[in-house]
Amino acid sequence: IGVERLYAKSQQLSAFFLRCLAERGATLELASPADPAARGSQLSFRHPHAYAVSQALIARGVIGDFREPDILRLGFAPAYLSFADMEAAARQLAQVLASGEWQRAEFATRAAVT
Predict the structure, then answer these.
(1) How far, in Å, are 8, 27, 32, 70 from residue 87 at the CA level?
(2) Nearest one of 39, 28, 15 to 93, comparing CA atoms
(3) What three-state secondary structure class fits 46?
(4) Closest CA to 13 of 99, 75, 100
(5) pLDDT tens digit string along 33-91?
(6) Torsion of the alpha carbons at 100, 106, 52 and 99, rounded to the nearest 10
(7) DSSP single-letter state for residue 100
């Protein structure tokens, strides 16, 4: 697959992920540029407990990362991620937020590396 096609797919994956979150009523502040052309193959969201949210997602098999002070960052690797993966990840994130699962003590303990 050519670089242009990979970039286009990454933009489509991130837009689809945002739609899936919205359909589930998950509200997070988008820290990445709203314009897909102005961002790379990732989305960053602000949440006051982004570290704990990222750890809860990792426990569910959704791998993202945390950036100080309050950023949850998710990447969209077009070579091996699918739209079904995006739907599943959005569902997991929405469930973590709605259930408050991120508030569990095991997710608040900071590791040396995230």
Answers:
(1) 18, 16, 20, 24
(2) 28
(3) strand
(4) 75
(5) 988 888 889 999 999 999 999 999 999 999 999 999 999 999 999 999 999 999 999 99
(6) -10
(7) T
